[in-house]
Write a structure and sequence with these properties.
Layout (H helix, E strand, L loop, with lengths): L4 E5 L4 H11 L5 E5 L11 H19 L3 E4 L2 H14 L4 E2 L5 H7 L4 E6 L1 H5 L1 H10 L4 E6 L2 H10 L6 H15 L8 E4 L8 H7 L5 E3 L2 H12 L11 E4 L4 H9 L6 E2 L11
Parallel strand pairs: 1-2, 1-3, 2-9, 3-4, 5-6, 5-7, 7-8, 9-10
The structure holds D-glutamic acid.
Length: 271
């Protein structure tokens, strides 16, 4: 197919999905677009967020003419996949919490779901749990602080150990629970796989960390193969608030410094 794979997230989280796409399709042309002016999505009201996501993705599709859009954001996907599919003429691949593979893996039948506040409370997420993990206990933890930590980390800053401890304490408590301790954690926010080495090091017991990256890469291959080749060029970056810290994070994943992404829909621009 002609056109790159367009990867969209609120911030740098989608780079975890870009990494999975590069593992599966090293030659593929990618374009990365993020709405960092509105970060974090997980604390925004739903109605405004839907309008914003459709406006940003529409502008990004205009700018890079992709073969397929990957919404590399659980918070956006559990809310806005249908409006996006109505608005866009290309295939749209969403990212939703990997409850099904986690339930297949857990021996103790006790899962953790680590996600943004919005993703944890969404009916879409609750339906995934009812459908695929009905026989499991699921400890859901809204960990919005980890979004900021991942942004800082990828931008070259230091992690805040106290903030991480406070955000993760309920998960560690569930991992130490007596008869059926939590053994498998769903990383239901694309920012979180960027912190997996730190999460593993902090966990009080060995845990399996499950994200959606490989499943998304496989789905992209089904929908858009053969993928257009990058031809050795660094992939394009787009952002609603380009800056040097973001440029550093994108560069680490093979993307050019972000160009400004202008929105046509003025109603979606206001904060
Ligand atoms: N990376 C996004 C996700 O997968 C959310 C981060 C945010 O709150 O903006 O949910």
């Amino acid at each position: 197919m002609t056109g790159p794979v367009l990867i969209f997230d609120s911030g740098v989280g989608g780079l975890s999905v870009a990494a999975a796409l590069r593992r599966h399709y090293p030659e593929a042309a990618l374009c990365y677009a993020c709405d960092n002016a509105w970060l974090p999505y997980g604390l925004r009201p739903d109605a405004a967020l839907v309008r914003r996501i459709v406006a940003v993705c529409t502008a990004a599709v205009e700018a890079c003419r992709p073969a397929v859009l990957v919404v590399a954001c659980n918070t956006a996907s559990t809310l806005a996949l249908e409006p996006l599919r109505r608005a866009l003429a290309i295939p749209v691949v969403g990212t939703v919490p990997a409850i099904k593979p986690a339930a297949a893996l857990s021996r103790t039948r006790h899962l953790g779901l680590l996600a943004t506040s919005a993703t944890v409370r969404r009916p879409y997420t609750q339906r995934l749990i009812e459908r695929f993990a009905a026989d499991c206990r699921v400890t859901c933890l809204a960990a919005d602080a980890l979004v900021g930590e991942a942004e800082t980390w990828l931008g070259g800053g230091e992690l805040d150990a106290a903030r991480l401890d406070a955000a993760l304490a309920p998960l560690w408590q569930a991992a130490r629970a007596g008869a059926a301790p939590l053994d498998t954690v769903v990383l239901g926010c694309t920012h979180f796989p960027l912190l997996t080495p730190t999460l593993s090091a902090l966990a009080p017991t060995p845990l399996a960390w499950i994200d959606s990256g490989d499943a998304i890469a496989r789905r992209v291959g089904q929908l858009a193969a053969p993928l257009a080749a990058a031809g050795g060029e660094r992939s394009r970056g787009l952002a609603t608030a380009p800056n040097a810290v973001l440029a550093r994070a994108l560069a680490a994943y093979g993307f050019q410094p972000p160009a400004p992404l202008a929105l046509a829909d003025a109603g979606a621009v206001a904060h």
